[in-house]
Amino acid sequence: MGTGHVMRCLALSQEWQSQGGNTTFLGRCKSSALQAKIESTGATFVGLEDPHPDQSDMDATLELLGELSSLQQGSWLVLDGYHFDGAYQQAMRTNGNKVLVIDDNAHLPAYHADVILNQNLGSERLGYQCDADTVLALGAQDAMRRPAF
Question: Above 80 in pLDDT, residue 146?
């Protein structure tokens, strides 16, 4: 995942933590400095060997979600990356997980999420094809800002 994706997820993570929640970042991150940045905010980082579409990613993610769900109610999975396709989203959601997809351009033929978040200007005009119960959070009013900003 790219640095920009990490930084916007950090904004979401810090807000969740300010509300009393815990956050865990799960991904493939080659930068020890970026991992340290994540952990310096109080979040946990769990590294993956191979990113999706490698099957080991889905297996490891579902296993971790199962462990986290047994520890706390109301867990959410936030997916932020262009490689998380509709099948991946659906597999995560079918397993009983709440899924938030951070998206920039409505590039997938179908989305399977509880919430789709696109904070970009003009995103209200994109034609997201999604499940009937998906909440769309579109536009600058839903922008994720770190406390420093």
Answer: no
**What residues have CB less than 8 Å from 57, skipping those under 6 apart?**
48, 50, 51
Mean pLDDT of 23-39: 85
109: cis peptide before it, omega within 30°? Answer: no
What secondary structure does DSSP assign to 58-109, as a single string? HHHHHHHHHHHHHH-SS-EEEEESTT--HHHHHHHHHTT-EEEEE-SS--SS
Query: What pLDDT sits at residue 71?
Result: 63
The neighbouring-strand residues paired with 138 are 118
Please state, in angstroms and rounded to a whole number, the distance separating the CA atoms of residues 114 and 133. 7
Single-letter amino acid, residue 106: A
What are the Cα distances from residue 91, in Å, to 2, 4, 85, 113? Answer: 23, 26, 10, 10
Alpha carbon distance 57, 118 (integer Å)? 24
Cross-strand pairs, 136:
116
